[in-house]
Amino acid sequence: MNTKSLKKIFFLTLILMLVSESAIHAYEEKELGPDSLGEADTLRKALEIDISEERIEINYDDGTDTLILRAVERDGDGRVFSAGNDIITFGKNELIDVADSVRGEVVVLGGDLEIRGYVKGDIFVLFGDIMIRSGANVEGDIFCLGEVVIDPGTMIWGDISSLELQRPVDETAYDFKGRYERINLDLADVQFVGPPAMIVMVIFLGAILLIVSSVTAIMPRPVARIRNQLEEGFIKCFLIGVLLTIALLPIWVLLLISIIGIPVALLVYPFVVFAAFVIGAIGFTQFAGFQLGRHTTLRYPGYIRTTLAGVILLGSPLIFSAFFAYINIWPLAWILQILFWSEQFIMYTAGLGAVFFSRFGTRPKKVRVEPRFEKKEPSGTGVLEPEIDS
User: What pTM was estimated for this model as a whole?
Assistant: First the structure.
């Protein structure tokens, strides 16, 4: 390559560099108009960022700033709390406002729910209504034991199950991507239990009531003595019952390893333990029936009726749990099942402790069998006077 060619390449390269620098300089100095497609954001530098509970403010080096509203959640009183958590409200109304963004389940018991903002999660409203206002966006299923009202300009990306649904006649006025299923609480139409299962349930319930009433009628004083121990020291009976329950298996093992105790461990011990749990549980149901009559107006004459009232009271969580499970309200069904099994544990352990302190229903010698509640004097003086046993 000769000298002239090298000179041409050198000058050509120099010209290209000058042109490129001029173009870049002109690009940096030109005035950005409304059609610059956000090029100003590529040239600005953020100098300060202020983050608060409800907003994010960014200050740039050119004197401009940007305000971003944060997705927040508020309870029924309008207080702001952490975004991303579930909302659970009891006995009051709940508002999800325009600037609010909820990412989690929303559960409202005994109140209404009004949605104006964004919800990403399932919604459960029991014994209340849901109002989905214009501009609201719901990404999740909705279950409501009440009425759901949908305004124009809303977006719902899930299924709706409710007693009633009110929505615009024009389907293009709102966006509903799921399907609607009406909840029917007419128990006459319930077909989920077949005749065999229904017969088994009736026989089981009848057997429990028959056993409780029979034992209470045959042994009224032992049952009353167990109830009396629970009234005088419920915590004491429960704690001793827990210790006795823990000690049942070690005692049985000790009896098995002794030659004399083998017949007792195999024949007598299981019967005694079973009888203690049964009579203790019946005494606890009578205790529950007495407490129900003392603290409410549900008072039943006679100790047998009072005991049966306690059985129904203690079994009601399981009945309601089955009902809520049928209508797919699983949170309430699980809570009621936990409540039922917790009270069963308390009933058997506290009843066993009461059997221990009453010496298997033999102490004290004198005990009141009939229910004794308090009532006000007819004169209206406010003095409480015990009822006289019949």
Answer: 0.50
- Asked if residue 6 lies in contact with residue 18, where contact means CB atoms within 8 angstroms, the answer is no
Rounded to whole angstroms, how far apart are CA atoms 26 and 19?
11
CA distance 243 to 341: 19
- Residue 233 main-chain phi, psi, to 5 deg: -155, 75
Q: Where are the domains of the chain?
A: 40-70, 83-183, 195-386
pLDDT by position in tens, the chain (length 390): 554 554 454 444 544 454 444 444 443 434 434 443 344 444 566 666 665 555 566 666 776 665 554 444 444 454 444 345 678 787 789 999 888 888 888 888 888 999 999 898 889 888 889 999 999 999 999 999 889 999 999 999 899 999 899 999 888 889 898 899 888 765 444 444 445 555 666 677 778 888 898 999 999 999 999 999 999 999 999 999 999 999 999 988 888 888 777 888 888 899 999 999 999 999 999 999 999 888 887 787 788 888 998 988 888 888 788 777 766 677 788 888 899 899 999 999 999 999 999 999 998 888 888 877 665 444 444 443 444 343
